[in-house]
Every structure is written in C-alpha cells, then in structure tokens.
Amino acid sequence: MPPLHRTIPALRRLRLANTAFQQPAHLRLRPATAPLRCLHVTPRAQEQEKAESTTSASSADHAPQDAPDRAQSKIKYTSDSYPDLKRDSRFKKVSKEDVEHFKNLLGSEAAILDGVTKETGEEDFEQYNSDWMRKYRGQCRLVLKPETTEQVSGVLKYCNEQCLAVVPQGGNSGLVGGSVPVFDEIVINLSRMNKVRSFDDVSGVLVADSGVILQQADEYVGEHNHIFPLDLGAKGTCQIGANVATNAGGLRLLRYGSMHGNILGLECVLPDGTVMDDLSKLRKNNTGYDLKQLFIGGEGTIGIITAISILCPQRSSAVNVAYFGLQSYEKVMDAFKEAKKQLGEILSAFELMDAQSQQLYHQASGAKLPLEGEHPFYCLIETSGSNTEHDSEKLNAFLEHVMSEEIVADGVVAESETQLQSLWACREGISEAGQHWGGVYKYDLSLPLPELYSLVEDTRKMFEGNGLMHPEDEKFPVKDVVGYGHMGDSNLHLNVATRRYDKDVEKALEPWVYEWVSKRQGSISAEHGLGLAKKGFIGYSRSETMIKLMGKIKETFDPNGIMNPYKYI
Amino acid sequence: MSKVRILVPVKRVIDYAVKPRVNKANTAVETTGVKHSMNPFDELSIEEAVRLRERKKVPVEDILAFSAGPAKSQDILRTAMAMGADRGLHVVEEKAELEPLGVAKLLKKVVEAEKTNLVILGKQSIDDDANQTGQMLAGLLNWPQATQASKVEIEGDTCTVTREVDGGVETLRAKLPMIITTDLRLNEPRYASLPNIMKAKKKPLEKKTLADFGMDAEKRLKTVKVEEPAPRQGGGKVDNVDGMISKLKELGAI
User: Fold this and answer.
1) Where are the beta strands (DSSP E) in A25-148?
2) How far is B87 from chain A (nearest CA, A)?
3) Considering A164, A318, A330, A478, which has the largest number of Cβ atoms within 10 A of its Cβ?
C-alpha cells in the first residue's frame, strides 16, 4: 500500500477549499511571529497556530486591507489612558552603565534589545511594549532575554540593588495588561529559556523551562502519549511559565483541574536574586507552607518563575465533539446536568456560546456555521476517553436522550478530525472575532450557574437603553455584546465588541459589571487575572483583610517593589 | 424523463488529519487504534448526490450508499445516510484488502442488481491512492465516464460535468447511465445533524457477503514493502549575524 501521507497536501487543499473554517483570508497570508516553531505540528495545531497567531504579541502586522483603522492608528500610551498613574520616582532610570552591566551578564547580543545606548527604533519595541488587544502600551527601552536561571538571578539582583523596575514577560498574550510595562520598566522576556528539562512517562511529570511555548510542551508530552493539562486559545504563543504565573484556566480545566493542583514544583527567582528551587516532582509533600502556590497566579509580582514541574495526565485516544443549538439558557443548564450525569468520567469540555457570539465569529471569519437554523444558544461538548466504542456508545445514548427530551433543538457530531477542528473553531475563534471591528472590552467572570447568562442580557439591555450600540451604524461605538465561556467551570466571558475604545462605553461598563458580579458573590476575574485592567476592582471580589494580607506578602518578597509595579493589588 | 437511481460507494479510511505510521513489519500502515472516518472524496460524492436531489431538476428516486469492508464500515454508511443517502448496503469482508478491480467488479454487480443509472465515486481513496475504481467500473459497464468532476449538472437524461484539467477546465456531456468521480472543489460536504443521525439509524442497512455476489477477495497485487519517507534534515539555529557568517563559511557557501 503506498504511503498515506502523499495525499496530505492535496487534502489540505481540500479542507481549505471545503471548510474555510478558521481560515479567514486575512490570517492565511500572515507569517508566523512566535520565536520557535515545531517542524512536526499536526494539522490541527497548524490551524490553531494560524488562527491564534493574531492573538499573539504585536498586532501591528495585522493585514491592513481588513482593518485599515487598526493598522494605522497607534496604540495610546498606557500613561495617557491612565492619567492618574504616575511613574514611581523611587525607580531609577536605566543608564548606560546599567546596560553595560547587563551586556556583561548576559553575554550575547541576542539577549538584549537596547534602546538606551543605541538608536533602536520604537517599532522594534512594539511587540514588548504593547499587548495584543492594542489597549496598553508601555515605554520600555530595554528588553533582556536571559537564557538561564543564573542569568535571571543576576539580572534581578542588580535591578533590586539599583532600584530598577522590571516586568517579567512570556508570550505576551495576556488580556489585562499585566505583561507589558506601564512606563519605562525593563522587560525581562523569558522566550530564550525554552528547554524541556525532563519528562518521566511513568509518573507523567514534566519539568521544563518557563519559556517553553504551551503548544510545544503539549506536543512534547504528546509524543509520550500524555497531555499538558492546560489548553487555551493562545497556545501557539503563550509560555508555560507565564501560564503558571497567571494561573491560566482554559479549555481543559473541567477535566484536569487548575494549576494549583497540577503544579508539583517551581523554580523561582526572587527579587533579590535568590533562587527558590522547589522543583519537586512529588505529588504529596506536607512539609511546611506551600510557598509555590503564591507564585501561581502571582503575575510576576513577587518573583520570576524560571522552571515548572507539572503533572501531565495520559492523553485520551478517543475524542468526540458535538455541537448543539438550544432554545433557552434553561435548556443549556439541563443539557449540562445531563452531560454530567451520562458522560461524567469522559466529559472533557462543556462550552457555552450565545447566538451573537456565533454570528460575530461568522461575520469576522467568513466561516460557515455548523447548524442551518438559528438558535439563541449553542453548546460544544467534548468527550475524551480511552475506548472509542465505549465513548461513542455513551455519547450516542446521551445525544438520543437530549434530542428526544427536546433539551437540544439541533446539533451536529464531528464525524472526522477535520470537522472536530471546525467545531472547536466556532468556540475558539470568538475571542479573536470580537477584535475584528476595532476593539473589545473583555470581562472574564465567575458567576453562579443559574445567573451566568443574565449578565449578558442585562449588559445588552443597558447598551440598548443608553444608545451606544448599533449592529451596523459606524457612528455607534458598540457593535454587539456577546457571551460565551466555560459552562463547566461557571466561567463567563462577556465581550463587548466595539468599533473603537471609547470613554463612554468604559464608563457605562465599569464599575457596573463589577457591581453586578459582586452582588452575586462572583469573581471579577475568573482566569484572566488582575494586571493593570482589574487592579482597582479587586475589592469587588476580595475583602479588605484579604487584600491587606496580600500586601504583606508582596512586601515580604519584594520590599523595593520593583516587580511588575503599578499592577495587581 | 427517467428517474435517477444513484449509487455512492464509500470507504472507511484512516482519518486524513491523523499522521499515518508504518507498522513494524513494514508491510502496511498501522490501523489499529487509529481514528478512521469516511474517505473525504466520498463525502463529496454523497453530498453531490443529495444536492442533485435537492436541486429538483431531475427526480432522484434512490441514493444508495455502499461500502465493502470490515463491520466498522457501517459507521460511515450511517454517516452517509445521516447526510442524506436513503439506504445502505454493506458487503462485509473482515480480512482481505479489496483491490480496485475487485471492487469495480463488485460494484458492477450491485449496479445491475439495483438498476442504478448514475454512480458517483470519489476519484480515489486516500489510503491507497489508486484512482482506478471509477474508471474500471466504467469499462466493465461500458458506460461513459467523467472523472475529477468540479461541477455536475443533470437535465433530463443529459449530464454535463465540468472537470479541472491541467491549465483549465474541460466540460463533458454524456447521457445517463454514467460514472462520475469527484474532485476537491465539487462541493462542501455538510455536517450530519443530530436529527438526521437519529433518522439514519432507522434507515435500512442491508448486509451481504462477497459470496452473495458470487465473488471472492482474490488478490492480484502483492505489497512488497511500505516505508516512511526519509526524514527531513532539520535546520540549525544561529545566535547572531557572526554565527550565521561563520556557519555559511563552514558550509562553503561564502
């Protein structure tokens, strides 16, 4: 039998021609920007990579024909959009001597992007200074890219002594402005720390540098039939160390749990240069305070994570995906209940998308939606197990049940890997689609399930009432309000797609959204973190005592306050 | 105007998004524990058959999905029925790998038994890439054939097929009965929707054996060896311009 792979290029064309999913024209031509690429990526990974690469670092190279306004207009400096923020005068400005010191320390030209002693253009700093949402822009003139833990330690020790403020940075795909400088903080970018240190395929423990790209980590453990317990839209860009530092949640949390459970150990560098080597591979270790937990979700405010030790579960060989249309939010909850009841141990994702989000995805990407008719709600269910037949049988029983009980109105099941990818694209593509018209206000909230969707309805009502929203007319700043998210984790993503960032929209949303959430004992940031965007609103989710204690921790680790200043708490 | 009775043969193959691996004995591609789905070209065939009916230009009396192979092939027959085929016919053959000529002979018998007057096949299956069955079947039946179709129109008894050829398109016209094989750009296959999947479960699926058609899985070809292509030589990374220059010098490029 001649080898199968010969037909792959032809089939790739087939898929492009036939489905056009995840392949909006403006993305297809865009070269990849992430520093490292795998040679052997699976087609799914490649698709994702293409689809997600706009979510990566600089959006300056967004195809101009699709977004003329965005490509031309410069992002506002964060210091201009937040006039109340003043540069902390305690921090020294970077001098020539400092740059000289870092050069000696790092020893390689590739490790430094220097705009202090050299005439380096601002555009070179763009990808380090601005976030992919084009909301925040710092003014850093020095980027350091250490390659080893010792170098990180040396850099921090010096910065601490000299009182130079720093921002640790991974793939810079964050959503709250946490990974870009506000003023002239030095960016410490970890992209060059990208080696896997060890993997044990008996225990499934992976130890790797923090700059390894999530997708590469997943592919690496994938070769050993394991899976990285985190998956998210920006996987082709984001780095695992930064995922830990932001306690990223993502699409697999329902199945594999959070970072707080999966991280077995960390190697961190403290602001004074001390290396905290807690790279344990033990699942159990009840000896003293579990300090590594402070760095998980610490957003680089008390130290820099340089390596992680993480427990990777066995990769499931059988994956099924179904996509439903439902008539009401009550039906969505019924479907979720049934899914838990009947698919319990194989359920790996239960994602919610409203009609508006799917329309937005459809309009932005040009992709055809899987279902013919329109439904107010859509759900995506994924099962992962070890036995295809067993899983299919369960899934079929479940599908038959929800159809006959009229819980779901219509639906499709992926019959092939291609369809599986296309269905996932309907969920993963929303985030990027929201950006398509200019900008997006993103809220990532934990809410009690029964009230999860009411927030979207209330927000829509609010914008209808105050006359800021119109689906077609360019004069109105808001295009649409969409809701989607991880139903399985009670996590709602409320996105307000706008044509431009607008003060009136912002005033209408904040603190209104936070108050709404606070009244229902929700969290104002389920998985995106605090960064700069939500710093001022932490009080809606945490008590004064808690915030005070957090302040004490910060002070203990970082008495000079050089780590990622102006943010977090 | 004659009614159209369409036969659509489909094959269960390794999912094209899965990277195939050669087995240890180097005799075949590893298939156990690998995701399978319908040959993508066959999806196009089913879709086109259903669209012919939906266009209502000609009355489509019957769409029969056919597969020969192991019991699991029934899954893709159900998929075909969920996409719109009326019924399924499964010739169960667990062990032997059927060859194009054998399949063509089998299809000829099915055509005769079912009074089919249009056969739409994928131009090839992605596992053996033979691209022979449709042509052989046309030869055996002595019917006109239009291969690699990118557009199909039927009016009355006349079928007009556009096919992509090197440097342009070619338009063929023939009268039914005929053979059409499908190519990439013919259409965009639909998803099998849940209600249709449920309905497909109730559609008739007939099981037969090769013996029922007076045939056996006679082999005319022998696979000598299956090998992976030579791995691509990986590139290297240099740290800076100086590194690149010295590397180029080392390679004798400058």
Assistant:
1) 112-114, 142-144
2) 19
3) A478
CA distances, A20 to each of A67, A69, A369 (Å): 20, 25, 11
Q: What are φ and ψ of residue A321, in 5° steps?
A: -130, 135
Joined together, the tokens standing for residue B160 give: 């007009």
Residues with Cβ within 8 Å of A357's Cβ and at least 6 positions away in sequence, in order, are A430, A433, A482, A483, A484, A495
pLDDT in tens, A330-379: 999 999 999 999 998 899 999 999 999 999 999 999 888 999 889 999 99
List A residues 415-454 in contact with B (Cβ-Cβ < 8 A). Answer: 415-419, 421
CB atoms within 10 A of CB B220: 8
The CATH number of residue B217's host domain is: 3.40.50.620
A22 has a pLDDT exceeding 80? no
Q: Phi first, then psi: what are they for A317, rounded to 5°?
A: -85, -20
| Beta-sheet pairing, B12-14 with B36-38 | antiparallel
Domain layout of chain A by residue ranges: 4-54, 70-183, 437-528
**What pLDDT digit, counting tens, does each position of B155-214 carry?**
989 999 999 888 899 999 999 999 999 999 999 999 888 889 889 999 999 999 999 999
- For A259-306, give the DSSP string: HHHHEEEEEEE-TTS-EEEE----S---SS--THHHHTT-TTSS-EEE
A3 touches chain B (CB under 8 A): yes
Amino acid found at B122? G
User: DSSP letter string over B109-139?
Assistant: HHHHHHT--EEEEES--TTT----HHHHHHH
First to last CA, chain B: 74
Which of A564, A567, A559 lies closest to A161, judged by CA?
A559
Please answer whether residues A565 and A182 qualify as being in contact, where contact means their C-beta atoms are separated by less than 8 angstroms. Answer: yes
Nearest to B13 by CA among B168, B130, B144, B112: B130
For residue B20, give the nearest of A3, A19, A44 by CB distance.
A3
**What is the residue whose two structure tokens read 């007076």?**
B214
Buried-state track B180-193, b at ≥16 Cβ within 10 A, e below 16? bbbbbbbbebbbbb
As a whole number of angstroms, the distance between CA A97 and CA A226 comes to 47
Q: How far apart are CA B102 and CA A98, in angstroms?
A: 78
- The CATH fold of domain A70-183: 3.30.43
Question: Please, what's the b/e burial string for A365-376 (b: 16 or more CB within 10 A of its CB; e: otherwise)?
Answer: bebbbbbeeebb
Task: Please tell me the predicted confidence (pLDDT) of residue B231.
Answer: 85
- Residue B71 belongs to what domain range? 4-250
Minimal CA–CA distance to A423: which of A12, A22, A18?
A22
Q: Which of A14, A191, A326 to mutate to test the interface with B (most CBs of B within 10 A)?
A: A14
Beta carbons of A3 and B227 less than 8 Å apart: yes
The dihedral formed by the CA atoms of A170, A53, A132 and A241, expressed in degrees to the nearest 10: -20
Contact criterion met (CB below 8 Å) for B51 and B123: no
Spans of chain B, pLDDT less than 50: none
Q: How far apart are CA A486 and CA A182, in angstroms?
A: 31
pLDDT at residue B1, as a whole number: 56
Question: Which class in CATH covers the domain with range A437-528?
Answer: alpha beta
Name the DSSP letter for residue A213.
Answer: B
What tokens were used for A152? 């990180």
d(CA A128, CA B106): 64
Structure tokens at B173: 């016209």
